[in-house]
């Protein structure tokens, strides 16, 4: 990737990051809204700092320049999910702005001003960006609109209620007066912030819900001007590539660096400490990325593995099976599942295995750090501002306010960049500090190679499920017992007190402890495995990734066992859940569920499967069509998806997220797994941690349920239904149930 030299005014000292100058402080908080609006003419960043004086305002959700450009300050990172477009749409709608004049910048790290209302910290996760900003950003736009109108009314000496706004133009029809936003910006800045604003009735929306609204990040990403961490190049900056231990918990004991230092471009080799939550390692610093990689590869490091984790995946699963045979901590208990199972006419017993999974975003982890006396500056695709800022300050022994973070684009994440222990950010800071101790004073860009990223830990946890279903003589579902075994990654995080209570990690059992199907006797237990030294973390759709698979394949098996249509069987069990039924009915209709599948070629068998699941407040149903070939390999032909995510802010973004989630889920269902042998991760890159290839991507159709309720998540909910719908389709075609992911070549076994 090309490296771009930033202009000095965008990277130097206190002038870096987002700054907004205002002639007055607009708002000191009502209803949790923190609004700062910069209306003064745009100045160069250095000129802005000089002009600001005591009125320098670091907070803003939007600013309007004298050129009429509206800049939205986004507290949520844009990592491909469309958050910049969604946030800009909310403001532009209430502001009645010209979409062509909308721009978006990332907000600085400031928890007091930019916290995520969903979890009280500044960060992006849980598919919450639009849901938690829906009213907040609309109020920001409506307030700015009211101030522009008030400024025009004062200048033109006409009643404000006679003034209209459309596409960035303020006008008084009776007198023919018109002014663009930029012409009124200074005058509007002198208006008082309205105490209250009236938001639009949805019937008057002009941008929300509009098809083919261009994404705000597309131009930058098309012409190459978009700034990712890898694009940052600061004066005197060095690139650091780390060497990590082969086993989790190991530390360097002996380093032979002469060959690394002999690589042209290598400047320094530094050892840096870690702790139980992040690597201790050795980093090679060089003038460019390639030299740093070559230097890292030339290192000879002996590792102290006295405290290293040494179990393999098979040994971990053996421990889990032993735990699965014992009673666990009860997460849900309705009725008496044990007695009901004994009385059942038919019983289904199943065990499911789910591997560790890497996030495998297209941009491996990276971070730029500049240390000065008592201050730290960070540039990266920042997803976890509050946690990273606080833990960096703690590591360096400086105030939180002395850690500044500039939010750039991120090339994907799927949760990895929101690490609750700030592992890779603290590693970058540790490398920069170790370099300063050796006299290297310039900024440091830490770059993980793909093998660092694949073997770097913080995976979706490995899980084992054991379940039993009981059916009566009519095929009705009488009982369900379900026991899960896996690691908790909420322990030791800021969310432990809320998400880990009485031995239950809520994200481990989500999707099964709130099962929507009508089961009179439901019993769910959880074992949290102890002493497993593999770092784990949330992964796109978190616990729903495994609970949806188990529940939706079991429901399918129950339907088939009693001769019922899988779609109609689900309908009967969801009669009290209208939003589940809404997506289920829509996907069945659009997929042509009632019609027979067209036959395949000679010797091929075709199958269709269905699944429905709720996650992150959204409801998604999917139908998958497959072809099983004579050699027992298979092809995914078509996926039809129906989603109810409340009010559709950007329908095209929703479709893109469902499509992306389906592709992401197909990779995990078909191919991907992280396995360990003697404590070492066996995979290193996309050749052995395989994701789907272009020729494996099926035809995908996405249908959105019309809704007027508040918007919910779309980044993650497209993932959970795919794997079970695929497995159900493969059963329909082959007669074989898949209990272990990834599917791989199990049909051929």
Automatic annotation (TrEMBL):
Native organism: Azotobacter chroococcum
Record protein name field: Isoquinoline 1-oxidoreductase beta subunit
Domain Aldehyde oxidase/xanthine dehydrogenase a/b hammerhead, chain residue ranges per copy: 223-307
MF (Gene Ontology): oxidoreductase activity
InterPro entries the record matches: Ald_Oxase/Xan_DH_a/b (IPR000674), Ald_Oxase/Xan_DH_a/b_sf (IPR036856), AldOxase/xan_DH_MoCoBD1 (IPR008274), AldOxase/xan_DH_MoCoBD2 (IPR046867), AldOxase/xan_DH_Mopterin-bd_sf (IPR037165), N-heterocyclic_Hydroxylase (IPR052516), OxRdtase_Mopterin-bd_su_IorB (IPR012368), TAT_signal (IPR006311)
Pfam families: MoCoBD_1, MoCoBD_2
PANTHER family (alphabetical): ALDEHYDE DEHYDROGENASE
Top-level division of the source organism's lineage: Bacteria
């Amino acid at each position: 990737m090309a490296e771009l030299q930033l202009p000095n005014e965008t990277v130097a000292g206190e002038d870096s990051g987002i700054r907004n100058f205002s002639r007055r402080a607009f708002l000191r908080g009502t209803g949790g809204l923190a609004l700062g609006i910069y209306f003064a003419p745009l100045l160069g960043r250095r000129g802005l700092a000089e002009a600001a004086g005591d009125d320098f305002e670091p907070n803003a959700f939007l600013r309007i320049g004298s050129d009429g450009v509206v800049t939205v300050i986004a507290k949520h990172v844009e990592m491909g999910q469309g958050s910049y477009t969604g946030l800009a749409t909310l403001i532009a709608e209430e502001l009645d702005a010209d979409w062509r004049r909308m721009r978006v910048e990332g907000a600085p790290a400031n928890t007091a001003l930019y916290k995520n209302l969903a979890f009280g910290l500044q960060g992006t996760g849980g598919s919450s960006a639009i849901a938690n900003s829906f009213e907040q950003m609309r109020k920001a736009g409506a307030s700015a609109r009211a101030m522009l109108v008030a400024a025009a009314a004062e200048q033109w000496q006409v009643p404000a209620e006679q003034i209209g706004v459309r596409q960035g133009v303020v006008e008084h029809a009776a007198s023919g007066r018109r002014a663009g936003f930029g012409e009124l910006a200074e005058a509007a800045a002198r208006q008082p912030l309205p105490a209250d604003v009236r938001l639009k009735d949805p019937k008057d929306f002009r941008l929300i819900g509009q098809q083919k609204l261009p994404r705000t990040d597309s131009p930058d990403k098309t012409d190459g001007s978009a700034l990712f961490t890898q694009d940052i190049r600061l004066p005197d900056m060095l690139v650091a590539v780390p060497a990590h231990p082969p086993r989790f918990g190991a530390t360097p004991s002996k380093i032979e660096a002469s060959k690394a230092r002999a690589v042209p471009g290598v400047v320094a080799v530094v050892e840096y400490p870690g702790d139980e939550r992040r690597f201790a390692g050795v980093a090679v610093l060089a003038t460019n990325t390639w030299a740093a990689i070559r230097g890292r590869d030339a290192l000879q490091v002996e590792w102290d593995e006295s405290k290293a984790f040494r179990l393999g995946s098979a040994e971990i699963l053996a421990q889990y099976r032993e735990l699965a045979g014992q009673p666990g901590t009860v997460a849900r208990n309705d009725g008496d599942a044990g007695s009901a199972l004994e009385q059942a006419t038919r019983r289904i017993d199943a065990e499911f295995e789910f591997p560790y999974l890497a996030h495998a975003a297209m941009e491996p982890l990276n971070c730029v750090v500049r240390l000065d006396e008592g201050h730290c500056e960070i540039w990266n695709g920042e997803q976890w501002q509050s946690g990273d800022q606080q833990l960096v300050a703690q590591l360096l022994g400086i105030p939180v306010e002395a850690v500044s973070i500039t939010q750039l684009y991120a090339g994907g994440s799927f949760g990895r960049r929101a690490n609750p222990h700030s592992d890779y950010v603290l590693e970058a800071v540790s490398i920069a500090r170790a370099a300063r101790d050796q006299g290297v004073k310039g900024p440091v860009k830490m770059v993980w190679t793909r093998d660092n990223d694949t073997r770097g830990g913080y995976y979706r946890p490995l899980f084992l499920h054991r379940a039993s279903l009981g059916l009566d003589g009519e095929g009705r579902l009488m009982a369900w017992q379900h026991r899960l075994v896996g690691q908790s990654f909420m322990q030791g995080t800021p969310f432990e007190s809320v998400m880990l209570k009485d031995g239950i990690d809520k994200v481990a059992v989500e999707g099964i402890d709130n099962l929507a199907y009508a089961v009179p006797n439901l019993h769910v237990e959880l074992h949290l495995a102890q002493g497993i030294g593999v770092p784990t973390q949330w992964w796109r759709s978190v616990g729903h990734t495994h609970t949806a698979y188990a529940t939706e394949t079991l429901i399918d098996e129950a339907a088939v066992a009693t001769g019922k249509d899988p779609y109609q069987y689900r309908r009967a069990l969801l009669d009290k859940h209208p939003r589940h039924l809404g997506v289920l009915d829509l996907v069945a209709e659009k997929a042509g569920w009632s019609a027979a599948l067209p036959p395949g070629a000679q010797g091929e068998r075709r199958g269709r499967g269905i699944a429905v699941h709720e996650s992150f407040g959204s409801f998604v149903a999917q139908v998958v069509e497959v072809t099983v070939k004579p050699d027992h390999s298979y092809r995914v032909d078509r996926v039809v998806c129906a989603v109810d995510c409340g009010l559709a802010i950007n329908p095209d973004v929703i479709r893109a997220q469902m499509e992306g989630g389906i592709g992401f889920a197909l990779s995990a269902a078909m191919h991907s797994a992280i396995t360990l042998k003697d404590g070492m991760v066996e995979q290193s890159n996309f050749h052995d941690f395989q994701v789907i290839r272009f020729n494996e991507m099926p035809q995908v159709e996405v249908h959105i349920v019309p809704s007027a309720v508040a918007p919910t998540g779309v980044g993650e909910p497209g993932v959970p239904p795919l794997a079970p719908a695929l497995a159900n389709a493969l059963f329909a075609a082959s007669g074989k149930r898949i209990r272990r992911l990834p599917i791989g070549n199990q049909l051929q076994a």
